[in-house]
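User: Can you help me understand a structure? I only have the sequence.
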Amino acid sequence: MIEVCCGSFEDGLNAYYGGAKRIELNSALYLGGLSPTVSTLKLLKSQTDLKIICMVRPRGAGFLYDDNEFMQMKAEAQDFLENGADGIAFGFLTKDFLVDEEKTSEFVKLIHSYHKEAVFHRAFDCTVDLEDAIKKLIALHVDRVLTSGGEANAIAGKDTIKMLEEHYGNQIEVLAGCGINAHNALEFKNYTHVKQLHSSCKSYNIDTTTSNGKVSYGYYHDNEMKYEVVNRDQVNKLIHNTQ
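Assistant: Let's start by predicting it. Here is the structure, written out as tokens:
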């Protein structure tokens, strides 16, 4: 299974026409991915047969959420589930970098009440002990975990990902992501034996109205005019190279 990380309606269409069967739908990928809009979900559901996992993340930075943020996240998750989402990606940590079992349990129960998939995202990679964390996720009935093996990217974390797949892959789905592309995916898959890969398959478009020389809305550095998009040819090549 190749899952494509998408940040817009256009991204979802590019993933679909590139041959993807499942996407993780976000907004604001430059912040690591925030919750998308319900409208984006509904548009993609009306025009594709993609399996869509919606991100629920109300802000950038980390994964320690207060009661108001948690209330918002539950409301967003319910909106997505009632409008066709096939699953929800989320992550809750305590101040000690442990899985927040109470919030995670509540989210899993909500998602499963709709008979959809509960996916713990790369907040997992910020925990102090990945084996302890994955055992907790299994006990809490999380369906899938997205991970780079606790490293900056999945290539660097390949040994840990291999271990997680070998020891726990029969109890929870291990989705490897970050840094996976058409050039390294087959070797990575053969080494780790994971059955699911997550990739952004990205390229960049230019929007010349980002800056007029005095005012800039670029987020990489001054006057940056690029924005990230899914490249359907890269999706197709990634899928072809891993078959």
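Now, to help you interpret it: The chain has eight helices and ten strands. Residues 210 and 217 are 5 Å apart (CA to CA). Let me know which part you'd like to focus on.
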